[in-house]
Amino acid sequence: MEAFYLTTPIYYANDLPHIGHAYTTIAADSIARYQRQQGREVFLLTGTDEHGVNIERIAARNGGSATDHVDRIANSFKQLWQQLDIGYDRFIRTTEPAHHRAALALWQRLQDSDDLYRGTYTGAYCAKCEAYYQPDELVDGACPVHASPCDVVSEENWFFRLSHYQDALERLVRDTPFVQPESRRNEVLAVIRQGLRDFSVSRRNVRWGVPVPDSSDEVIYVWVDALANYLTGVGYPGDGACFERWWPAQLHLVGKEIIRFHCLYWPALLLSAGLPLPKQVFAHGWLTKDGQKISKSTGNTINPFALVDEFGSDAVRYYLLRNVAFGQDGDFTRRGFVDRYNAELANGFGNLVQRVTSLASRYGVCRSETDGALSDAAASAHSRQARAFGDLALHEAVAAADDFVRDVNRYLQVASPWDLARNGQVQQVQAVLAEAVKGARVAAELYAPIIPRAAAEASRRLADGPEVGEPLFPRVRVDNSLLV
Ligand code: MSP
């Protein structure tokens, strides 16, 4: 059976999770669920990135130990994934001893390839990005991402010969679908063509990290440490069988702001280490609020726990996947959330299941044959969804399910079983309802990767003897005063 290993970025354990983190993780989970449904063996890795100067500083500012701080944040991420029905296979924390071993094994390989050398870095460092910036990358002298002042660093440390991999990286990005979507691929190619500079892979004066062997006052640069998590997650270096089974990853899902690390640094480090390259990095866009990236530093975060409490996990998953064309940015609005919820979940799928189960329990369902009127529509919905998941057009994979629900509703409208019942045509009524039940089951299958909770409940109700239950998605009253 084909193995499908996919990953989310590991999220900084500096602060509580927000809706932007939920976005990537929900997307990854829906892909994992879809691939499992197709019979593939899937391994989904997520976790927390717990080292680095930023976390060291935040923990110190809060007056506690870094260990207590990251424990608390990692727990909160785990709790959110539980509430959002994220079926990950492993939650990795970079403070785990197993991860230290992997980061050190990777380091050793870089050293063995003679790709590490001593150098001096002088310049800007943004602790929030955990990234070095060249003078021409700064905007008004500040970090281009956070618009906040950078640290000025001048230190001797270890450098990695990224420049050695210039040609190999250009070929990888230009000739293979390694970076997706196309717009990001072009962006990465442009960076490569400007010429790649070696970068510093250790930090002095930072204690919170994986110590560099034989350099007691240095830790491994947090991005090298963090990227190695994708190897640790599947058993590197100790569990060879597990590593062989899953590596290389099929897919690293990331936000567009971290492509430099995933599309340049990561493949170069792997090439240097003599390890196979992941098949693809897909960079999605940002969730924005009033056009601005949702982030802790902008201060416009949306609390995913509160949204789940109010609307349920399926509603949050649905909105995030359906509302934004995957790969592009999309604005989050409460109005949009409620509108989509009512239109597609309450009046669409939820209502279909309600309608079909109540009609079927009232009039009965023909056990022998149906008219097959929905077969073609079902087949084309399945293939549309397969194409969409293949292209990671997740919004389109959801739309395939939404549109199929409309097909089933239209079928019911035209076949009009209630009129047939009024005329005493019991057999015909039961045949129509059998087809409608079959259609609703297909809809539940199509929705299973997206809204797993409601889809499972719908499938249960639609199994042998249809059972009527509470509405899957009770309508939400639109109170304009609350909708901004
Ligand atoms: N720790 C690094 C990643 C290391 S991976 C080896 C990091 N962490 S982060 O906490 O800042 O999370 C970044 C990721 O969270 C983004 O790449 C994206 O997947 C997700 N998002 C955070 N805010 C987001 C939005 N506003 N919109 C969409 N996704 C966002 O970078």
Task: Write a brief caption for the model.
By secondary structure, the chain is α/β, with parallel strands linked by helices. 50% of the residues lie in helices and 16% in strands.
Please tell me about this protein's structure.
The chain has helices spanning 19-37, 53-61, 66-83, 97-112, 166-175, 182-193, 222-227, 229-232, 240-246, 259-273, 304-311, 313-323, 334-363, 375-390, 394-415, 417-422, 426-447, 452-462, and strands at residues 3-12, 41-49, 90-93, 116-126, 131-133, 151-160, 179-180, 199-200, 202-204, 211-212, 215-220, 251-255, 281-284, 287-289, 292-293, 330-331. It is elongated, with a radius of gyration of 25 Å. It folds into 2 domains: 4-284, HUPs (Rossmann fold, 3-Layer(aba) Sandwich), CATH 3.40.50.620; 295-482, Isoleucyl-tRNA Synthetase, Domain 1. The longest helix is centred in the last third of the chain and has 30 residues, at 334-363. 47% of the residues are buried. The mean pLDDT is 95. The protein has a 6-stranded parallel beta sheet, with helices on both faces. Strands 5-4-6-8 form a 4-stranded antiparallel beta sheet, with no helix packed on it. The chain has 484 residues and is α/β, with parallel strands linked by helices. Helix 14 packs antiparallel against helix 15, helix 14 (375-390) runs parallel beside helix 17 and helix 17 runs antiparallel to helix 18.
